Amino acid sequence: MPDALPPCSILILAGGRGQRMGGRDKGLVPWRGEPLVAHVHRVVRPLSDDVVISCNRNQQAYRAYADQLVGDTEPDFPGPLAGVIAGLAAAQHEWVVVLACDAPLIDRALIDDLLALAVACDSAAMVRQGGFWQPMFSVLPRRLLPVLEQAWAAGERSLQKALLHEGVQGLDCVEGDARLSNFNSPDLLQG
User: Fold this and answer.
1) In this structure, is residue 74 part of a structural domain?
2) pTM flag (> 0.85)
3) Which helix (H) or strand (E) holds 45?
4) In a domain, 1, yes or no
5) pLDDT per residue as tens digits for the range 14-58
6) What CATH number did the domain enclosing 91 receive?
7) Which residues neighbour 139 within 8 Å (Cβ) at sequence distance 6 or greater?
C-alpha cells in the first residue's frame, strides 16, 4: 500500500518558545545522543524530497535537517497554526505531513496510515487518541492553506480548531501509543 501513496511534503514544527523546556529550543534538545529533530528527520527523510522545518530561531542548526526552512510571519512565537500556514505556503507537494519536532518515536507505519487515510478520503487526517485529537500528527492537503489563512485573519490561533472546522478524518490510536510521545518537558528526556 505505501507504494501507491502520492508524494508528500513533510512539515516539522519547531517554532515554539519551549516554555516547558525552560526556554530551550525543543527540537535541538539532545536525547540519546542526538537532537530530538534528528530522530524525526531519520524517519521522514526517506518519505519525501521536500522536508520543511518551521523554526523561529537557530536556523543554522536546523538547516542540516531540512530542504527548506520557514518562519512565522508574526513575532513572539504565535503558535503552531502560524507554522503550518508558513509550511503549507512553501510545500512542494499537494499532501503535507505535519509532525512535531519533539516526537522522536514516530514511525513510518503511522505516517503511512495517516497519509493513506487522507488520500482515500481526500481530506485532512489527524491522529485521535483516547477521544482527543492530536494535531501535531496530521496530514493536510495544501489546498487548505487559504482556509487556514482566513481562520488566522479571523483571530483563530488553534490549529486543532481551525482544522476541525473544515472536517478531519480521525486515525484512532490506542492510549499509551509510544509513537505519539511528545518530549516537551525535561523529565521526559531521561528515558
Assistant:
1) yes
2) yes
3) none
4) no
5) 865 444 445 567 889 888 899 999 999 999 999 999 999 999 888
6) 3.90.550.10
7) 8, 95, 96, 97, 98, 114, 115, 117, 118, 124, 125, 126
